[in-house]
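Objective 1b of the project was to move from sequence-level analysis to a structural picture of ligand recognition. The entry below was assembled by the postdoctoral researcher (A.K.) and checked by the PI before modelling. It contains the amino acid sequence of the target and the SMILES of the bound compound, flavin-adenine dinucleotide.
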Amino acid sequence: MKLTKVLLAGILVFALAACSGKDKEIKTDVLVIGGGGAGLVSAITVAEAGKKVILVEKMSALGGNTIISATGITASDTKYHEDAGISFTKEDHFKRTMETGKNLANPALVQILVNKSSEAIDWLTELGLKLKVRSEAEPFWLVPVEGHYGSQLIGVLINEANQYDKLDVRTKTKATELVIKDGKVIGATVEDEKGSYVIYAKSVILATGGLNNNPEMIAFYNEKYKNINTEMTTPGATGDGIVMALAANADLVDMQYFQVRPLSINGDWYHERILTTEDVSGILVNFKGERFVNETLAPKALAAEILKTSEHSAYAIFDNRVLNTPDGKKFFEKGKGFQANTIEELAVLINIDAVTLLKTINDYNQGIDPFGRTVLGKIIEAPYQAVQTLPSNHYTMGGLKVNADAQVIDKNNQPIPGLFAAGEVMGGLYGDGRVAGNNTLDDVVFGKIAGLSAVK
Ligand SMILES: Cc1cc2nc3c(=O)[nH]c(=O)nc-3n(C[C@H](O)[C@H](O)[C@H](O)COP(=O)(O)OP(=O)(O)OC[C@H]3O[C@@H](n4cnc5c(N)ncnc54)[C@H](O)[C@@H]3O)c2cc1C
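Corresponding predicted holo structure:
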């Protein structure tokens, strides 16, 4: 009887261990953590080199923030520029990137990004992505011939990844910590629905994206953005790669810099000129119906002021003349705006004190402005509109310090053996300002570099 009990207990322990996956130990050549653009490109590159690669993605689907990339990719001296007879040279690209980042980016990394942009575009074209130069006025943008950019980009990458038997994609599998032996990264502990297990690898590539969905971590690195909202991100962007790499003594660069959008709501952001265009401008009010800021401040400063209000949010108030601009129309429609024929009715709709709101607007219309705004329009025409805004992070500029081979650098300025990074988790390409479109270019260029370095 006793023996049967012991046997049963043994079987139970064995079954639980198997269920939790704790007894599993998997070996591969390269482990890629994160299944957005950078992770997919890294994994494809490893598989192309004939090596075994496992890509783990904690969400149930691949894509990350890459799949919501709205506009296109920035690249220079591409065949598309040649075909269109529109010039955007490598020199233009380098200059634009450095100047936008207030010359704080790492010029050596930026030069690599620029030099490799044209071949990155050729590769994406081969995979089936159909692009064109946006316009002579915006020659830096390559945009899809039709349709949504991010979903098409992820579509061609997934399609390519599916061609390789040696590429094993595991969704709903979260990396929780790196396994480090004698200073070398030799794998990571991951957990899935059944439990946790270790994947051992000769190299690990971190491609976990930014911090957009981790307001506490954003505030830790820049207190100005305390209480930031998360309107503009997919859920996986929680800074896990940074946390994991810090445990391996990784160094970070530019962590205080974020691209924050003051006018964001419902998964998108809207141009600040809604508030600043002369004569047709709007104002921001807090939840008491008072103005609290010069609405023409630079976007990041404006976002920080909105975040200081008790609700970390504000209402943009404007009239039909803003609504009739393309930016105003998009903001109102996508932001699910409110409209009324009188200010008092509008106040009721947004649950703000009507007397205060009326006084705020009357003062503004008469040019009374304690905030130093130089461009004062008027809000005079019925109907009136209100749209709530929830300032959110659009892009994490800083990240892991890497060298030209995408090796993660430690606090002693030495590469951490076995550890590489690509995409938004890495720092150095932006400084204090992001050229939109360089980001998915970063996914491709540094995804490829990380993949190739990882198999050396
Ligand atoms: C609204 C919006 C519009 C944009 N538009 C453009 C644009 O037009 N052009 C452009 O170039 N860029 C654009 N960007 C920026 C661009 O989308 C990203 O910067 C870039 O694609 C990031 O790629 P990534 O692979 O590094 O990260 P992501 O695509 O975010 O992928 C990271 C992945 O890692 C996963 N992950 C995180 N932690 C773990 C873990 N512990 N274990 C397993 N998996 C994990 C996440 O779930 C996620 O799927 C836009 C961003 C936003 C928010």
